[in-house]
Write a structure and sequence with these properties.
Order of helices and strands: HHHHHHHHHH
Distance between the termini: 51 Å
Largest sheet: none
Number of strands: 0
Radius of gyration: 18 Å
Shape: elongated
Helix content: over 70%
Number of helices: 10
Strand content: under 5%
Length: 185
């Protein structure tokens, strides 16, 4: 059920964010889906949890003795590659249909909101691990962790929309900017 929901969402079709449509694609009734997940919030939380399971713990792909530059480059490259796969397209389509206001999201879709919140903490932990052993300001690591997903979504969006911008240059630029910001003073 969850894989079918993810495939449907990954099409980018705004109508794919319909419990009835997903039930139909699964070959079940909405009642059967509700029985399994409780409601649409339960379905979306399960879909998000499934993507997190498939993604696993975000690896810190640079060796422990790697330089700051290599570690930042690995994070930027991993995020770039991760944002181009089907699960990411599915998540983006789902996010586009959900309330933008955090309080409204938490009120209407508490389990979905909780799943998203857990991702934020996991990402911050990944960034902290990526820079462990280096003399890097923890506050700056938290700031970088907060902006990297949005910045990388912008670069991936440029790739998807088509651009005259050299995206390898853009990735090098963001890597160099982050390295400069994280360099010990």
């Amino acid at each position: 059920m969850l894989d079918t929901a993810l495939r449907s969402l990954a099409t980018g079709d705004p109508a794919a964010v319909s419990g009835n449509r997903i039930a139909k694609e699964i070959g079940a009734t909405w009642g059967a889906v509700k029985y399994q997940f409780g409601d649409i919030d339960g379905l979306w939380a399960a879909v998000l949890h499934r993507t997190a399971e498939r993604r696993g713990d975000l690896p810190v792909s640079a060796p422990a003795d790697a330089s700051l530059e290599v570690r930042v480059g690995a994070i930027v490259d991993n995020m770039y590659e991760g944002l181009t796969v089907g699960d990411s397209r599915a998540i983006e389509n789902l996010r586009a249909a959900l309330p933008r206001d955090r309080e409204e999201l938490e009120r209407l879709y508490p389990r979905t909101a909780a799943e998203f919140a857990s991702w934020g903490q996991a990402w911050l932990d990944t960034c902290r691990r990526a820079f462990s052993g280096l003399d890097v300001d923890p506050q700056r690591v938290a700031e970088v962790a907060a902006f990297i997903p949005g910045a990388m979504r912008g670069i991936v969006s440029e790739k998807q929309l088509g651009t005259y911008t050299d995206l390898d240059l853009a990735r090098r630029g963001i890597t160099n900017a982050i390295v400069s910001y994280l360099q010990p003073q």
